[in-house]
Amino acid sequence: MLDALLAGFDAALRVDTFIWMSGGLLLGMLMGAMPGFTTTMGMSVLMPVAFLVGDPLLGIPFLIGIYKGGIYGGSVPAILISMPGTAASVVTVMDGHELTKKGQPRKALDMGLAASVISDFISDFLTLILIIPVAAIVLGFGPPEIAAIMFLSLVIVAVTATGPVLKGLLMLGVGFWLSFVGADPFSAMERYTFGTTELYDGFHLIPMLIGLFALPEIFNAVRAGDKQRGHVTSLIGDRLSWAELKNSMRTILRSTGIGTAVGLVPGLGQTVAAMMGYIAAKNASKHPETFGKGELDGVAAAESANNAVNGPTMVPLLTLGIPGDNVTALLLGAFMMQGLRPGPTLFETSGATVFAILIVMLFANLIFWVIGYYTIPLFSRVVTIRKGLLIPITIMLAFTGTYLARSNPFDLITLIGFGVIGLAARKAAFDVMPMVMGFILGRELEYSFGQTLSLAGDNLLQFAFTERLGMTAIVIATPILGTLIGLRMNRLRRQELMRGG
Questions:
Q1: Which residue of 233, 326, 391, 435 is surrounded by the most CB atoms within 10 Å?
Q2: Mean pLDDT throughout 82-97?
Q3: Domain-by-domain residue ranges, the chain?
Q4: Concatenated DSSP letters of 347-380
């Protein structure tokens, strides 16, 4: 493991990697700064770019840059026009826009940037530390343990999804069935292809992800239209001073701890972290009555908590294959398309590459600070761009990127089909992430379980309860544990949303 870490340092120090990461940061900030154009949409539409690059040390950092930049970029319209660019910036509105009303928009934006970068850096460093012992443990797993962990991952994702547990399990089943379309991994016989040669290799991941995540977002943006945004205040007022940043450091560190803990738990995400960080800061303040009236600590608490989630979500994602939200589900798909399969075997087969990506994430925060510092005036004007100009470009990128990935016209049909499924799922309040997870991990679980059956021979029960007792315990406990976790997370999510409201 130490050798892989050292090799990762060597592989990470590439100029082209940081150029691609910087491009991702810029595009992420741009997407986040435009109300109605979410980080999820940006990542899904631009995912083909990362796929076409081919090198995981270029494509993955590019997408991670979009992820980081998008979460911060959402604070720009939240502060300037009281319209969150992303769901994670909802809490930032409470004090950020009040500071704008007081004539201090630049100070609020500076605080948001500083809190975001500091918390991101600390949480990324903690991620690098935490992932080493977890990876060392999972390296000893064989096919039975891998199958058990995948089963655990799928159930947890299904029961922690938005909405009732039954809906999550139903979507998981749909995704699992879709993963079976194509050739059987053991016999190569066709399954569920209905005589269509294009389905022999199954559905391709890129049109599926763009269809499920990007097309519904584009449709909603078209339906919402250009809302009246009012006058955008110019960046007047003083800049953030070092003394003010120093006074908010305790709040930033507290929210960073909260966001890091939230990021390690799949299913919560940035919005819950921001609410928890804001509530904790208000409760700890000597003057809580100033919160909601233009308090710098309020901006610092929300922005540091939601950005601190970014790094720790990589721990369950990379070691167990469990994404924390829709964005990390897209990252999971990106890793898979680059030939990197998150889970117990990842660090054994591609340890140096994974550590290189994590190290690039850490150093990228310095680039994040520089880019944010000099581009705040630019992105403060992005909120005035009309959606009517941007939506056609987004649609073109979605269809062009889908076609260029394999130059297969059938992928365009797949894109539209999954777009319809995504719209229907959103209309019926179904979370599509369990479906995506079932599709991505379905074949892997089938293959690992097939290997387990081969190892067990004719007596699976004896094999399970003598040689693989731990694996058996996981499989038996998973439905119970997963349901309890899901119920608890849904209850916590509702409580935090009520407090935030």
A1: 435
A2: 75
A3: 2-500
A4: HHHHHHHHHHHHHHHHHHHHHHHHHHHHHHHHHT
